[in-house]
Design goal:
It is a single chain. The chain is of the alpha+beta class. Among the domains are: 1-99; 105-180, no CATH class; 560-735, Immunoglobulin-like, CATH 2.60.40.3120; 742-931 and 938-1026, Aminopeptidase. The strands form 4 sheets. It has a 7-stranded mixed sheet with strand order 15-16-18-17-19-21-20, with helices on both faces. The protein has a 6-stranded mixed sheet with strand order 4-6-7-9-13-12, covered by helices on one side. Strands 5-8-14-10-11 form a 5-stranded antiparallel sheet. The chain is globular.
């Protein structure tokens, strides 16, 4: 300030600072004149403002000091503060707050209020600045309450209700005060809520700015449930005011006022009393009608969306149309662990209604005190370093594990007598019904009913599959099969005649070398199911040929979710339009209703099928209810069912109404799968992505606390899609993802054995029998030794092991398709496949949960438990496949032959692409606040090699989506247990998307079986490259391995050349709203816990590692 070349403003500040020191001796008028000059310079020169706010300048401190010294200068000093703060936005206001400006202003409010009467001009200026400063000061509400400024503003408001000039800044400050919970409650007790209703009113062209601020202030106050209860009596008033503004604001100039009214209603209806008052005041009809009238005007979308949110909250909770949420099928367990979820299910008293609670509202008492903000972080990350270190001792004595030596014959085989062991399934003569494309009844031919169904007239014994003849046409174009319709379904294809009718089927032998309908039927005969299925679904019988065309991720149509929700709301508004007709129900095994073709016919009684109930709600709309996993009361996600009796060109809507996850890829472009029998007969036997207007949102069906882990007030979610059928007399199948049954696996394994060459070592053992009586296959694949010399036998026995598993979760069928690609590559005749077999011994459990797959479960086995949460302490009685698979690994660890790689194949419902989860001590510690020495964090980074190789060669694989953090909720999974207890550093879960890709060559495309199988093959080639990188000297003798990359690229081009994508994926135009509340509920599903890390978090330190 004392420099000779100082600017005018700095000189003035120097004079002002001097006057402040001599405040008792100087005439205040001089200070007023100096301050006025400063104000003039600030208002007219941007350069002056920047100079004052620049780093090192003391201008702001001088102004604040002047305020403290002389109350007579309040007006002009406040003007200076306003001029300094406003043009610079948040940064300059932040400087003002950091200099203690908030506290000084609040103290000036107290001082000015003591004058009699208070200066209107001073109060106006002070509150104008406070309205701008308050939002930038996190402690503003606390400061105002502690120094008494809160009450000053309230009293000023009460005394100046007609003084609109002063009222406006006071309301703005109150709005900021109300953002603090304690302040909001205090203001409510002081009568401010009732005061707001004196200010707001019906449509008027006057004082619209004041009304807008009043509504925003009221909305902020009503976020407190205490205040919301005070405002319940005003719900009819708010609805009247909203309707009045809607009717008169024809030019839509006051959308913000209308939105403010809706915001108040939204906050009041957060409580049960508010929802009841809304319904009693006919709020549903008022908002529905006004929203419908707003639909043609795009700019009114904010009003429509908020109205939709309110109506969904207030929609009366309905119960699922079920007698119980427990599975319709039951499997008695010999032993039930005490205290577990299955025990609770078994011990549930008779007569308890487990579908809905007496009260479906979660009215938690509001904490009426201030809550400090906390940093959001993932509390699930493991922080105990001891649990992140591998165990040094084995938990089981070797004598117990010696019985597993028989599964490792290759480690002691001398090949003096060449033997190949491949166990085939035992023959069975169980009666099975073969699928056909019927739509009308065959003459005198009706299948026998299942157990529990009522008999039909003129029944005949079901067809034994041993008597079926499948013959080729002479021209080889198709098969002819004598077959019968499904039980309870009367239909016939146009190509079928009377008795002895035959069905022309596509010849897929050339396209599907691993598929054989005859063999599939044989496999079905030996498959055991709880419902004792006697039917075979057409797609499983005749196979799936992947389409050659691209299937793009569906672009979301703007407003589709809103339209669907409004159609749901119409059920309450126009109840007489609802049919509510049950057309399919597994809980009631009765005769189907013959309705003259007015309803669709449904069926899910075949392997892997899941549909419990179908209710026709409108002529072309059906609510569908999925079955719980057996011995469970939840896990509704997987579906697979048949539909027939459709009308061509009719717009059908299907609603799966008991989904449980709070989010789904159905909101991001994923479509359902459909298989058309008529299309298959025409030479296109394939699953295709289909459905339009797809969305996923919270519905009005109440989820009981019994099924929601004790939480009340939860709702189910609806997955809805629309469908128009193209063929008359068609039979269509719908599925969550590409079905892959247990019988399909058995068929594929037998076909693979037939493809084995003399150079391939293949052995299939039965690892164990499941609870349901199905065998769990274990495969051993490697290359035969070139000779029986000691060197060759030694090399054979000492090959590193790779252990692979899949399908522990039945609903993740994509895992089986990836495994199919792996198995086909391993059994292939290419030089790459032979090199891979020479490099490793593969131990593979292709299906860890056969019972869950067979019975249409989504996540559990017949024990009612998630098998991928049982690896720490599996039970041989309840979790035999996990127990014996872990025992195999424990045996290998005991003989010092732990696998080089362990990988468990999974599917992911929330994310796109293919990616891996691994285990890293360092990366887990880095994500937490725990301290550890560099010695404790010593870790080989080899766990990153395989996923990095995959990211370089597999177009669907995304390294950015990978995570190597160990979380508490995953400590009992295969990946973590094998890493920690078996000591396998490269222990992975490989997750494949159910939807599609958002990066790479497949960006914007939905994933299909071709890409999934390709991923399985790419995984094999990545293992070969891993071998090259870890053992380069040994493999230099294999010259053909040096061309892995070029061979791989050539293979990729041949397989997937039709899937090149040109266009970028477009983002959705409509904001996606998943829940009926303003925010999403936390998702506690164990399958999605890996999602808790953001991309930025999971990528942390990645650059330094790679």
């Amino acid at each position: 300030v004392r420099r000779p070349n100082m600017s005018m403003v700095l000189m003035l500040f120097g004079q002002l600072e001097k006057l402040n020191r001599e405040s008792m001796l100087v005439d205040p008028e001089i200070a007023r004149q100096i301050t006025a000059k400063v104000l003039h310079l600030i208002q007219t020169q941007e350069k002056t403002r920047k100079e004052i706010m620049s780093k090192g300048s003391s201008g702001m401190e001088v102004i604040l000091a002047t305020l403290e010294v002389s109350s007579r200068l309040i007006g002009v000093c406040v003007c200076v503060c306003v001029s300094l703060s406003v043009p610079g936005g948040g940064r300059r206001i932040g400087v003002f707050v950091s200099k203690g400006g908030t506290g000084i202003l609040l103290q000036l409010v107290i001082s000015a209020s003591k004058e009699s009467p208070p200066s209107e001009e001073v109060m106006l200026q002070l509150h104008s600045v406070l309205a701008k400063v308050g939002p930038k000061d996190r402690k503003f509400g606390v400061k105002a309450r502690l120094n008494g400024a809160l009450n000053v503003t309230v009293n000023l408001l009460k005394q100046n209700l007609q003084n609109h000039k002063l009222l406006l800044p006071c309301l703005l400050v109150l709005q900021v005060y109300s953002s603090n919970t304690v302040n909001a409650v205090s203001l409510g007790k002081n009568g401010v809520v009732e005061l707001m209703f004196k200010i707001i009113g019906p449509y008027s062209k006057k004082n619209t700015s004041l009304l807008k601020v009043s509504l925003d202030t009221l909305g902020a106050l009503l976020k407190s449930k205490t205040n919301a209860r005070r405002a319940v009596v005003h719900v009819p008033v708010l609805l009247y005011i909203y309707h009045d503004w809607h009717r008169n604001d024809t030019c839509h100039r006051h959308i913000l006022i209308r939105k403010g009214i809706l915001g108040c209603l939204k906050n009041i209806t957060n409580i049960k009393l508010g929802r009841k008052a809304f319904i009693d005041a006919d709020g549903m009809r008022i908002l529905y009608n006004t929203s419908t009238e707003c639909l043609p005007v795009r700019t009114l979308d904010p009003l429509i969306n908020t109205s939709s949110l309110i109506m969904r909250k207030c929609f009366p909770k309905n119960r699922l149309p079920l007698p119980t949420i427990k599975s319709v099928f039951h499997h008695q367990l010999l032993r039930v662990p005490a205290g577990g979820p299955v025990a609770q299910l078994y011990n549930q008293p008779l007569g308890v209604d487990d579908v809905v609670d007496e009260s479906d509202d979660n009215e938690d008492a509001e904490a009426e005190n201030e809550v400090e903000e906390k940093d959001h972080h993932n509390d699930d990350i493991e922080t105990d370093i001891n649990k992140l270190r591998p165990k040094e001792t084995h938990s089981r004595p070797f004598e117990e594990l010696k019985i597993y030596e028989r599964f490792f014959m290759e480690l002691s085989e001398d090949f003096q007598v060449m033997q190949y062991i491949f166990l085939s399934a035992p023959k069975s003569h169980r009666q099975i019904i073969v699928p056909t494309a019927q739509a009308l009844p065959l003459k005198n031919h009706t299948a026998a009913p299942l157990q529990g169904e009522c008999p039909h007239p003129a029944t005949v014994p079901p067809l034994d599959l041993d008597t079926i003849n499948i013959t080729k046409d002479q021209d080889g174009c198709g098969d002819h099969t004598h077959s019968r319709p499904h039980p309870g379904h009367n239909r016939q294809s146009p190509i079928l005649g009377g008795e002895g009718a035959v069905l022309q089927v596509p010849d897929t032998a050339l396209l599907l070398p691993l598929h054989d309908p005859d063999l599939y039927v044989e496999m079905v005969k030996s498959t055991c199911s709880v419902p004792q299925f006697s039917e075979v679904a057409y797609p499983d019988y005749f196979g799936h040929v992947a389409p050659t065309f691209r299937e793009h991720i569906l672009e979301r149509v703007y407003g589709v979710q809103r339209t669907k929700i409004f159609q749901d709301i119409e059920r309450l508004i126009h109840p007489n339009d609802i049919l509510d007709k049950v057309v399919y129900d597994l809980d009631i095994q009765s005769c189907p209703v013959i309705d003259g073709g007015e309803s669709l016919k449904f069926n899910s009684q075949f392997e892997s099928g899941n549909l419990r109930k179908a209710v026709q709600v409108r002529k072309f709309e059906y609510d569908l209810v999925l079955n719980s996993d057996i011995n469970s009361n939840h896990y509704h996600q997987w579906f697979y069912f048949e539909v027939s009796g459709m009308r061509v060109g009719a717009p059908y809507r299907f609603n799966i109404i008991n989904c449980e996850k709070s989010n789904s890829q159905f909101n991001y472009g994923m479509q359902v799968l459909m298989y058309s029998v008529q299309e298959a007969i025409s030479g296109r036997p394939r699953w295709v992505r289909t459905g339009t207007d797809i969305c996923y949102y919270k519905n009005h069906f109440s989820r009981s606390s019994i099924a929601a882990g004790g939480q009340k007030g939860k709702s189910y979610y609806t997955m809805t899609f629309s469908m128009t059928f193209n063929h008359k007399d068609d039979v269509c199948y719908f599925a969550y993802h590409y079905p892959y049954t247990y019988s399909t696996l058995k068929m594929h394994l037998q076909k693979l054995e037939a493809l084995r060459t003399p150079q391939t070592y293949l052995r299939e053992d039965v690892l164990c029998e499941t609870l349901g009586g199905n065998s769990c296959p274990l495969l051993t694949i490697t290359a035969m030794p070139e000779s029986t010399s000691n060197d060759q036998i030694c090399q054979f026995r000492n090959r590193p092991l790779v252990f692979l598993s899949s399908r522990v979760h039945p609903g993740e069928t994509n895992a089986s398709w990836v495994m199919k690609g792996t198995l086909e590559f391993l059994m292939g005749s290419s030089p790459l496949a032979q090199s891979l077999r020479e490099a490793y011994i593969f131990k593979i459990v292709p299906m860890l949960n056969p019972d869950g797959v067979v019975n249409g479960n989504h996540r559990c086995s017949l024990s009612g438990e998630d098998l991928n949460r049982q690896w720490q302490n599996p039970s041989p009685e309840l979790h035999p496949t996990i127990y014996h698979t872990k025992s195999l690994l424990q045996y290998l660890a005991a003989i010092q032959r732990a696998p080089l790689v362990f990988c468990d194949y999974h599917g992911h419902s929330r994310k796109k692409n293919v990616f891996m989860y691994g285990c890293s001590l360092k990366e887990t510690v880095w994500e937490t606040n725990i301290s550890a020495t560099s010695c404790e964090l010593h870790e080989d980074l080899g766990y990153r090699t395989l996923p990095k190789i995959l990211s370089q060669m597999a177009p669907a694989f995304s390294m950015a989506s990978c995570s190597f953090v160990v979380e508490r909720s995953k400590e009992a999974t295969a990946r973590v247990v094998v890493w920690r207890e078996i000591g396998v550093q490269r222990s992975y879960t490989m997750e494949s998307t159910l939807c599609g890709c958002d990066q790479g060559k497949y960006k914007g495309l939905q994933i299909g079986t071709r890409e999934l199988e390709e991923m399985g093959a790419q995984f094999c080639v990545a293992l070969l490259r891993l071998k090259r990188q870890t053992s380069p000297l040994k493999l230099r003798n294999h010259a053909h391995l040096l061309d892995v990359e070029s061979d791989l690229m050539e293979t990729r081009c041949k397989v997937s050349s039709t899937y090149l994508l040109e266009d970028e994926e477009q983002s959705f135009m409509e904001e996606v709203d998943y829940s009926a509340e303003s925010g999403d509920e936390p998702d506690n599903d164990p399958n999605t816990a890996d999602n808790h890390l953001s991309d930025s978090e999971s990528n942390k330190h990645r650059d330094s590692l790679t």
